[in-house]
Specification:
single chain, alpha+beta, 6 helices, 11 strands
């Protein structure tokens, strides 16, 4: 089915990451996390208000769960929201938020007396800032930022009514995003291998192309083996997803395996490119 390849518009996560992983990350957060959260947790009124503009890229979305002190522990959340009349008042900070500096709206998760809830916070709201994190080592074409919320007033109609059961709602959205990442990193690894094959065929040392050296051939074959194994794992995961039997632990395993593979391929490719 279409979900096996994670369709995003006319392209897949794999194909976009083959061009630049930053592009795949942008689409995954904008379409998968921001739009996906409104689809699964939003009211009919919120869907009518936001989804047409977001789907046409007239408004860019972000997904804000990670915090500076929490990292991969979202339950250790400090951002909080309190009712004030018909509004909510948000205070806190988020970190490493993809699209934050360019987003028109952010799905912000905060603790409330009722549990963790999601809120649509609009760009330009008083007390809301989204500075960019500069000089990143990787994914440099992806705009990443922090979010700072100081007495940010959010109207009741911007609270996501479907986000009522602890961390289940945001983690469910992240499970779908991890599925896309498991495909995207394959595309990035394929791009590294393709460039390296081209380079080793044309780079001559000691009177022959690098590709004719068995030591180079073994390393290229290892890359191809890792990529193929990752493809099979994500393909099986997609089949489970289409059958409604995909489990979060399986998604995490595939993401872990495939990201580790892509990092090994990228690092070895960079080593073999030498000064180039």
């Amino acid at each position: 089915g279409a979900s096996s390849a994670v369709m995003l518009g006319k392209f897949t996560a794999l194909e976009m990451a083959h061009a630049d992983p930053s592009l795949s990350v942008f689409f995954g957060v904008h379409a998968g996390l921001a739009m996906g959260t409104i689809v699964t947790c939003g009211s009919e009124e919120q869907k009518r208000r936001w989804l047409p503009a977001v789907s046409r890229f007239e408004k860019i979305g972000a997904f804000a769960l990670t915090e500076p002190h929490g990292g991969s522990d979202p339950a250790n959340m400090k951002t909080h929201a309190k009712r004030r009349g018909k509004d909510w008042v948000l205070n806190g900070a988020k970190m490493w938020i993809t699209n934050a500096p360019i987003a028109d709206l952010a799905i912000v998760w905060a603790k409330t007396p009722e549990g963790i809830r999601g809120f649509i916070v609009e760009k330009g709201t008083r007390g809301f800032a989204a500075p960019e994190i500069e000089r990143k080592f990787s994914l440099r074409a992806s705009a990443t930022g922090a979010l700072f919320l100081e007495d940010v007033v959010v109207p009741e109609e911007n609270m996501l009514p479907g986000s009522t059961i602890g961390l289940k709602a945001p983690l469910s959205c992240l499970t779908q995003a991890r599925f896309g990442i498991s495909w995207g990193v394959i595309g990035a690894a394929q791009a590294c291998l393709a460039q390296l094959i081209d380079y080793t065929k044309t780079r001559e040392l000691f009177g022959r192309p690098l590709a004719q050296n068995q030591a180079i051939q073994i390393r290229l074959a290892e890359m191809a083996r890792g990529i193929t194994g990752a493809q099979l794992m994500s393909l099986q995961l997609g089949r489970l997803k289409d059958a409604g039997r995909m489990q979060p632990a399986q998604v995490s395993l595939a993401k872990w395996n495939n990201c580790s593979m892509a990092l090994r391929v990228a690092r070895d490719a960079r080593d073999m490119l030498g000064g180039s």
